[in-house]
Amino acid sequence: MLKVSFKRLVPLTVLTAVMALAPIGAVSAATVAGDSNLVLTSPMRQDSEPVTIYGLGSGPVPSFDPQAASDEVSISPIENLFLGIADVDPATAKLRPELAAESDSVPGQIGDVNEAGDTWTFKIRNDVPWVRWDPSTQTATEVRKVTAGDIVYGMKRICDPRLGAAYMGVAASIVKGCDVVSKIDPAQITEADFDQIEVSAPDDTTLVVTTQGSLGFFQSTLSFWFFRPVPKETVDEFGDKWTDVGNIVTNGPYVIDQYDPNVNRVYVKNPLYVDVNDSYGGNVERIFQIEVADATTGYSLYLNNQIDAVGVPRAELPNVRGDAELSQQLRQTISLSTFYFAFAQDKAPFDKVEARRAFSAAVDRNLFVSEIVDVSRGIPIAHFMPPGILGAVPLNEVGLGTADNLGFDPEFGKAQLEAAGYPNCEGFPDITIAVYQGAEPWAEFLQNAVSTNYGCDASKMSIEALDFGVLLEAVRKDKPTAERPNMWTLGWGADYPDGQNWMHDVLSCNVDNPFARECDATDELIDAAGKETDGSKRVEMYRQIEEQFFGPEGSFPIIPLYIRTTPSLVKPWYTGFFDTDALFGGPHWNSRKIDQEAQLAARGGANVLPVAPTPAQ
Question: Mind listing the pLDDT tens digit for each residue in 155-174?
């Protein structure tokens, strides 16, 4: 999930939605404001109310394009618009077939592999339609059936350097030939170059993929959104506008009906959808997400029964816990997501490893969580991988400081800052810390920590708050060094339950590397861990990698801060697999259920849609 690098790039700012229900989101980028005088309207009045989940958005969706998407705000709808080779079951969080079939010879395995372990053959369904939805007429039209060739096109498209996808480096580490094509000068590339990517469709129902050797984690990547098929003719026809409402052609359980990035978005059930998997009795026909200016406004909408789930504002949590009714609706979930500060290593002062170690050692994670995040919303961490990922180490075994206050060691940091050439912070240059909107207190905490522990002038550390999509653009590795911030806030949510998804897909020098870190022996170890087939050896290798990044001699490309936990409220009429759904990939809206009779009774029985309050004139 940018998953916010969040999957998955994850924006973590103030939570505006239930994170088990919606993507990790920055404070909404809506232009509306205020938290009173709630207004209702019915611009979509119908004879009968569709069964609807009413919720909050998380700011503008950066992309509905499976190959271009890199963040949870985008991956959430893509999960419901496009089917993939495989899927993560919302109830069990285990891999299950989707467009591809299970192996005939190996139970539980999707597809068949050759003896060398590097060429996979999949049988692809022939009954799934490509669908175009016309919002003006509320009709769906079948364009044609999905073929194995559509998957080939999607898997090759992620390797196209002209697209410049954030996950291109990840795909290149998995698919043979993608590494070659992705490095071709975009101005020189030809269609013939894509023949080097070893993905093919001998016929409409057969897909063959050759990987970069025998990869123990390959099966887990089959649910990746960027490996999903897209219709080439639609991309060719509309270009960058192919995902616009009315143009987009999809194959999943929902279609896009409305999208106004700063107001709302509406998805409706695809009437031509072929139910390829168990939807567990889900009955949701429409998803209506409204953009609001802040968490308090969303909370007010929830209390007025106008939305079905919401993140709990920090100030309201004691009230919720003390309320007989609301306390029964409170949920606490732990996600496989780690949030951090990142360093740009292509400019002073963080081109020096000692300066990076010093800033990391200045951060008291326990204090940060208690004062900035809230103990109900985070677990301090001084390394990267959270528990639940293959290769993750226990929280108190890697990092600076002590087991009671892991990561915090200002005396060590002082020595490192002096070694970097800045004794007592003398001569330390001006730096910019970019944050997503709502995370300004994070940077202020860092300012104070460095000032208090090392005597640095806080005014030399300027804070720049950006919309999440703008932040992602600002830290791209192809941005001129002078235009990039020195530090920034991001987070990472798991795409699949393996250390390779963390150590390689985020921190390796060989992927989209916004840190501009140079390759070293750690990267060789990361590559070796990905190809190791012995699970116990892989676990030990990932421990070594964590040490090489975050131990006393670590290179510290980031400052790990905390694992996200989320207190949220869910109406009793809204049910789903909230603890397991979207741990990897996006949520499955078609597995959710609404007791519409109870929902409409609470809403006064009116067929109306929630609207954000109008700012006072």
Answer: 999 999 999 998 999 999 99
Q: Which amino acid is at 272?
A: L
pLDDT digit string, tens, across residues 368-415: 999 999 888 899 999 999 998 989 998 889 999 888 898 999 999 999
Q: State whether residue 76 is helix, strand or coil.
A: helix
Q: Which CATH entry fits the domain spanning 83-251: 3.30.70.2190, 3.90.76.10, 3.40.50.970, 1.10.260.40? A: 3.90.76.10
Are 227 and 151 contacting, i.e. CB atoms less than 8 angstroms apart? yes
Please report which confidence band the pLDDT of residue 615 belongs to, taking 50, 70 and 90 as the band edges.
very low
Peptide bond into 43 cis (omega under 30): no
594: pLDDT strictly greater than 50: yes
**Residue pointed to by tokens 């002096």:** 418
* Residue 223, C-beta contacts closer than 8 angstroms, at least 6 positions apart: 84, 85, 86, 87, 88, 95, 98, 496, 584, 585
**3-class secondary structure for 131-188?**
EEEECCCCEEEEEEECCHHHHHHHHHHCCCCCCCCCCHHHHHCCECCHHHHCCCCCCC
Q: With contact defined as beta carbons under 8 Å apart, do 256 and 267 qualify?
A: yes
Strands (E), 233-329: 249-250, 254-260, 264-269, 286-290, 309-311
C-alpha–C-alpha distance, residues 332 and 353, integer Å: 37
Alpha carbon distance 69, 609 (integer Å): 29
Integer CA distances (angstroms), 48 to 44, 45, 285, 306, 453, in order: 11, 8, 12, 18, 63
- Between CA 55 and CA 287 the distance in angstroms is 8
Cβ within 8 Å of residue 480, ≥6 positions away: none
Question: How far separated are the first and last CA of the chain, in Å rounded?
Answer: 38
Q: Is the pLDDT of residue 533 over 90?
A: no
List the one residue out of 344, 128, 343, 96 whose CA is nearest residue 223: 96
Rounded to an integer, the average pLDDT of 26-37 is 31
Class of domain 335-564: alpha beta
Contact in structure between 475 and 434 (CB atoms under 8 Å): yes
**Coil, strand or helix: which one is 337?**
strand
Assigned token pair, 325? 């009714």
Q: Per-residue pLDDT averaged across 541-568, rounded? A: 96
Tokens 């004691």, residue located: 318
| 85 within 8 A of 227, measured Cβ to Cβ | yes
The helix (run of H) or strand (run of E) holding residue 318 is helix 317-322
Residues whose CB falls within 8 Å of the CB of residue 382, separated by 6 or more in sequence, listed in order: 365, 395, 398, 399, 400, 401, 406, 407, 550, 560
Domain locations in the chain?
Answer: 27-81+254-308+571-617, 83-251, 335-564
CATH numeric code, 27-81+254-308+571-617: 3.40.190
Query: Got the DSSP string for 530-565?
Result: HH---HHHHHHHHHHHHHHHHSTT---SEEEEEEEE
pTM above 0.85, yes or no: no
Distance CA 123, CA 205 (A): 6
Distance CA 566, CA 588 (A): 19
Nearest C-alpha neighbor of 436 from the set 569, 342, 555, 325: 342
Gap between the Cα atoms of 308 and 604, Å rounded: 14
Inter-residue contact 381 to 334 (CB < 8 Å): no
Contact of 147 with 124, CB cutoff 8 Å:
yes
